[in-house]
Target: Aspartate-semialdehyde dehydrogenase
Amino acid sequence: MGYRVVVAGATGNVGREMLNILAERQFPVDEIAALASRKSIGTEVSFGDKTLKTMDLDTFDFTGWDMALFAVGSEATKKYAPRAAAAGCVVIDNSSLYRYDPDVPLIVPEVNADAIMGYSKKNIIANPNCSTAQMVVALKPLHDRARIKRVVVSTYQSVSGAGKEGIDELWDQTKSVYNPVDDKPAKKFTKQIAFNVIPHIDVFMEDGSTKEEWKMVAETKKIVDPSIKVTATCVRVPVFVGHSEAVNIEFEDHLDEDEARDILREAPGIMVIDKRENGGYVTPVECVGDYATFISRIRQDSTIDNGLNLWCVSDNLRKGAALNAVQIAETLGTRVLKKG
Ligand SMILES: NC(=O)c1ccc[n+]([C@@H]2O[C@H](COP(=O)([O-])OP(=O)(O)OC[C@H]3O[C@@H](n4cnc5c(N)ncnc54)[C@H](OP(=O)(O)O)[C@@H]3O)[C@@H](O)[C@H]2O)c1
Model:
């Protein structure tokens, strides 16, 4: 006996990946429903070798469904997630709406799977921001060994992190650079993204940081340890899929770069590719479609007592969203619902 699973946002970047990953990992599914907005009723989406017809989230009855993986943005989540949760269907949500709610666990299974038991307060579990998810997978095993005091991170985030419209804008604008008659001004992003980088993701906060940067701070504290100080600069780059991060870490205890490399090689969800030669590191195009968070360029920071630098790359639609949500579903299944 398997699960009755709903994927809400099934026509989007993350929803489509959720369906792919549920099928790839042979999640024990008895029945699956693909939902999106009314305009997408009947749109076909793939689930393994099957094709599903998309249904309307607005009129869907969640009664009798075990879990719903949501990837519809905060506004629609606010309207529909409580409806699903009240019907007894556990919501695993990708938006930022519930991440900071003390009654909702925020989970990266390699890091804090035990927090899953907190799901029952609201019947909702939150999935972190894409940049946070890949970073904390790398931070946790190092923190367990040498206690992290402070993290300074700069991100290089792909346009798929901004949904379907983000991908279309980079594609259309890139073509229009070679055909100026067909000008494509910035619409989804605040400045031209083709052949450019933009140091601005999400809205500005009062202190001058952006909400994306604030999310990395708040979510790292909630998932790993509230004592870790984080400062972030989040940048959008003209890459379709795959977020990269340059991470500087200051520890309480000394941690040698070779020991850090060994710890990360053994850590769940991590793949170390770190050769000090041309091409001996991972770039975003190489991580697309993969499950791992790739770590390269591990080296001592000689400007502080106990510091390391590293380069962290992952598929933002997978570990940053859909894969992590499916891993949460797997954890919920094995630890709580126990079907399948
Ligand atoms: N992309 C990432 O790297 C990433 C990472 C972590 C979290 N997330 C979060 O995941 C969510 C989805 O992101 P995405 O990149 O997949 O966006 P997307 O490609 O733009 O897809 C959005 C999906 O939500 C559906 N939707 C939107 N409003 C709806 C409504 N009112 N009722 C029903 N369905 C609605 C859309 O359906 P239609 O096609 O019918 O409009 C579509 O299926 C967002 O909350 C985002 O912040 C994304």
